[in-house]
Amino acid sequence: MGIRSLTRTEAEHRSALVTVERYDIDIDLTALPDGPEVHCVSTVTFSCSEPGAETFVDCAAEVRAATLNGSPLTPSGDGRIPLPGLAAHNVLRVESVQADTATGAGVHKATDPADGEVYVWTSFEPDEARFVWACFDQPDLKAPHAFTVTAPAAWTVLSNSGDPRIEEQGAARRWSFPDTPPLSVYNTVVNAGPFHGIRREADGHDLGIYARRSLAEVLERDADDILTLTRQGLAFYAEAFAMPFPQRKYDQVFMPEFGGAMENYGCVTWSDAFLRRAEPTPAERELLAVVLLHEMAHMWFGNIVTMRWWDDLWLNEAFAEFACHWSAEGATRYTDVWASHLLGGKVRAYLSDQGPVSHPIHQPIHDVAQAASIFDNITYPKGASVLLQLMTYVGEDRFRTGMAAYFARHAWGTTTLQDLIDALAEASGRDLSGWRKAWLETAGTDRFTLERDGDTVALLADGSPRPQVLAVGAYDRVGDALERTALVRVEVTEARTPVTGIPATSDLLLVNDDDLTFATTRPDPTARDTLFRSAGLLPTAISRGVAAATVWDMLTAGEATAAEAGRCLTAVLAAETSDAVIEPYLTLVTNIAELWAPPAERPALTEAVAAVCRRLAADPGRRQVALRGLARTATGAEDLAWLREQAGDDVDLRWRALVREAELGGDVTAESAALLERDTDPDAWIRALTVRAALPDPAAKAEVWQRLAVDREVPVAAVSAVAAAFWRPGQDTWLAPYAERYLAVIPDLQQGGMIPAMTYTSHLFPPYAVDAVYIERVRQAARDASPVVRNTLLERSDAVRRMLRARAVNA
Asked: What is the rounded CA–CA span in Å between residue 565 and residue 491?
């Protein structure tokens, strides 16, 4: 019998029946150094509003024993234990074992290849706590949790609450943590291992950061940045929400083989891929700041106040994604984060929202399996952009007032979307019911085109637009630059909106200047060529980003060729002054050359990007980023030789250069083996595998596919890099068999939980050696896949379909 997914109807019925008073969770990790098993005893104290009724508790781990009020229970075999004959007050005790700590959900054991030390982490969103211990695994049944963890004596154990009592037990130690505040089960955590840790006091908080011992040097290098950002974020949110983080302890734990980051209350878990052995680039530092502030925002939006059911998932993720950019711009040195957001997540969201997986930000969610499928570009970057528009629409001061009222009113409880809308409507004095329906309950993207007619300027919407405020900027050519001469904010309610105060004779009029709304835009027809020629002359990172996003959307919609878009964005890259934005541009222009351009045009576009990288490398502040870009775009022996000379002893850059040389058919076997021998990074084998993945060689492709896609040896955080090296343009002869093998592994892509499912489905998807018939076969296969795999397949197949169309132009 399969594990059942909790439905909304079941959750509502159980919530009406059950009030959880507390969880006492006893965890034994002492078997992990030599074996796979995690042993748990979950004691759940709860009341029942209808004595005599029955319900069930979730437990997908192996149940060794279970009693309800002293009477034995029998699991039903579907991840549930029936609870018959409930009393008014109940005590449930379940002993369970999770032995699949290598590939299973909820808990993971990782062994550091550097020293053989073992680390273990838990991660439970959306409903994976049930794979480890018995619980009512739904967000609205919040309760205090008391964790008691027995672990090897050399280990440190970290959980949500601070100051545990530690008892020595010979070869083990027992950690007893104080009660947490009322939390949803998915917000709880246990991280354990022989960590290297750093603790500091800041503004009344006790801040801790931890990583595996072999990363101690990197953690020490980055500690000042991480802890400064943590202090700045806590201060910003405390003021913005009129509610300081209510716990002294705030820990961040960087764990091996973890995907992304998870907002556990007071103890955020990160992938330790964020601790980069090579010196981080400006964009990598900015990404760490954004993720840190995203997870921190969840302390308020998700932990202190929790959505009642997963249809309001956006209340968690979209808000955190908005808030991390808002706070980074307002409280840290990363003041161009909205431009990075636009050129990264937002352009992906535009593509998703115009494709087959578009959905309303707020939509009915039947069960938790469906909820796992909407951790996507609509929920995250589109949701964040829509919330920026909402703040623009009501005004930032009134937005802050409404958010403060929301948190004060609902702290430690659960809410629905309407609770948030009510708080903001009350603070702003605006009726937001129409805004809610248009933005949150309606899928799709507005499009605005500029119309110039004599002395008048107007915005034309493609259809009935959502209510929104956006800006139009006027720019005139002054020497070798464009200068903004006017900026007008316009509130749009109709299909045609006059824009007053904008000179119609300006050289360039930029729609959605300052990027205040979520809408694709088009220049007026007479200015199309001006936009493509002049985007790099705009004066700010955000104005250049808006122009670049317009050009990118025109490419994906079939309204611009790859050559046009590539030339435009390469010119913007060459002119960009914001260090953190250079990498997103490099990614976009290189993707255009590799994935979108017809084969005949690919070399010229790639050579143009390589030339810009060589020029940028002359700037010491941009040398690292530029050389990495050249490592992706080097066009032949001359570029590669120059790159090797510039790399010197930079091991990271030498690996990158080897990947490119391998792709171009070079004999890199001996050099790769020598570099692996002297690289002190215990994960360097992944770099060597990445080099091998790029080779146009059938034996290499077969080996890498087996290790990557079948055996899943590569940590999830590294899958994208290895897969990108595997799927290379111009290698269709060697790649064609793996397009077929991808179809064969689709039924297995859901293994390991939500993040691995999304990662493998997306990055293993073949962008080459496929055609329109293949795309249709993928869509047919998607029908039988799990929701998270199905949506990822449909989204990726739509993107590749658009690429194929672009490659066929002028081919």
From this structure: 30
Q: Which residues 6+ apart lie within 8 Å of 792 measured at CB?
A: 757, 758, 761, 762
Is 483 among the residues known to form the active site?
A: no
Q: Is this model's pTM higher than 0.85 or not?
A: yes
CA-to-CA dists, residue 196 to 69, 119, 217, 262, angstroms: 43, 12, 9, 20
Average pLDDT (163-171) is: 96
Identity of the amino acid at 741: R
The answer to whether the peptide bond before residue 126 is cis (omega within 30 degrees of 0) is yes
The reply to whether 19 and 140 lie within a common domain is yes
**Rounded to an integer, what is the distance from CA 674 to the centroid of its chain?**
35
pLDDT band at 290; cut points 50, 70, 90? very high
| 197-227 residue pLDDT tens | 999 999 999 999 999 999 999 999 999 999 9
Q: Domain end: 165, 194, 223, which one?
A: 194
Please report which residue ranges of 118-240 form alpha helices under DSSP H: 216-240
Q: Specify if 200 maps to a domain.
A: no
Assign residue 313 the CATH number of its domain: 1.10.390.10
Q: b/e map of 666-702 (b: 16 or more CB within 10 Å)? A: bebeebbeebbeebebbbbebbbbbbbbbbbeeebbe
pLDDT band at 2 (very low <50, low <70, confident <90, very high): confident
Cα(328)–Cα(341) distance, rounded to whole angstroms?
12
Question: Which of 627-636 are b and which e, b meaning 16 or more Cβ less than 10 Å from the residue's Cβ?
Answer: bbbbbbbbbe
> Does residue 811 have a pLDDT over 60?
no
Catalytic residue among 257, 295, 576, 601: 295
Residue 650 backbone phi and psi in degrees, to 5: -75, 100
**603 falls in which pLDDT band (50, 70, 90)?**
very high
Co-location of 16 and 146 in the same domain: yes
Rg of the chain over Cα atoms, rounded to whole angstroms, equals 27
Domain range for residue 16? 1-194
pLDDT mean over 228-237: 98
Q: How far apart are CA 27 and CA 195, in angstroms?
A: 19
The backbone torsions φ and ψ at residue 27, rounded to the nearest 5 degrees and listed phi first, read -120, 135
Q: Is residue 300 part of a domain?
A: no
Q: Which of 397, 412, 440 is the last residue of a domain?
A: 440
The string of DSSP codes covering 7-33 is BHHHHHHHHHHEEEEEEEEEEE-TTTT
3-state secondary structure of 476: strand
Angle between helices 313-331 and 383-394 (to 10 degrees): 70
State how many domains the chain has.
3
Per-residue pLDDT at 314 exceeds 80:
no
Q: What is the DSSP string of 621-688?
A: TTHHHHHHHHHHH--SHHHHHHHHHHHTT-HHHHHHHHHHHHHTT---HHHHHHHHHH---TTHHHHH
Q: Using the 8-state DSSP alphabet, how is residue 160 labeled?
A: S
- Asked if the structure places residue 786 within a domain, the reply is yes
204-to-181, 207, 235, 246, 719 alpha-carbon distances in Å: 19, 9, 11, 11, 40
Contact 722, 714 (CB under 8 A): yes
- For strands 71-72 and 62-68, give the pairing: antiparallel
For the segment 103-110, the average pLDDT, to the nearest whole number, is 94
What integer pLDDT is reported at residue 755 of this predicted model?
A: 87
Q: What is the pLDDT of residues 498-535, one digit of tens each?
A: 999 999 999 999 999 999 999 999 998 888 999 999 99
